Amino acid sequence: MDGEDSRTPTVLxxxxxxxxxxxxxxxxxxxxxxxxxxxxxxxxxxETVRHYSGRLDETTAHWMAILATNQYGFYLASSGAELVEDxxxxxxxxxxxxxxxxxxxxxxxxxxxxxxxDSVAGWVAHQLNADLVxxxxxDGIFSANEVIxxxxxxxxxxxxxxDALLPELLEKFELNCTIVNGRxxxxxxxxxxxxxxxxxxxxxxx
Length: 206
Fold this sequence. Notes:
Layout: E1 8-14, H1 22-31, E2 36-40, H2 43-52, H3 58-77, E3 82-84, E4 94-97, H4 100-106, H5 117-128, E5 130-136, E6 142-143, E7 146-147, E8 150-152, H6 166-173, E9 177-181, H7 185-192, E10 200-203
Helix pairs in contact: 2-3, 5-6
């Protein structure tokens, strides 16, 4: 990841698949004194929306799913981390973003299940000129049963552990993204700090 002085604290997306360890992860990050704005995934809250999405139009489902990330955000904040809703007030330390308000005001993403919290995190990282880390429940992107250390966003043409829109956004925003297994808390710390760790970096920056 880039360590330029012009870049702000890392944007860290914490996937819903980590919900059973997520608050422990946040506590670990606070203790490690790292700086990150956490974008919550949707987890079981978004899955409830998806379950009923056949009865909904795409726009309704989109905003309900974004509201679901707010629910996960409140859950993550039970760790003691501070909640924020305004990208203009991001400070150092660990902050949990409630994404709904800023997204509803600006409406920057397509109303589709191709754009999940991964894309939200990518958009937020672009807005803040920040590095992007995605913590999920796998070690990264695999090829022949091995983790790929780096891959171009343009080469992601099939389904992976990130949503379908994210590679396109990474290219558009010229942004890199590092995927790590959030069940290994130290890997997340290392990725935020720009240090080598097990995971996959998707290259969108030219």
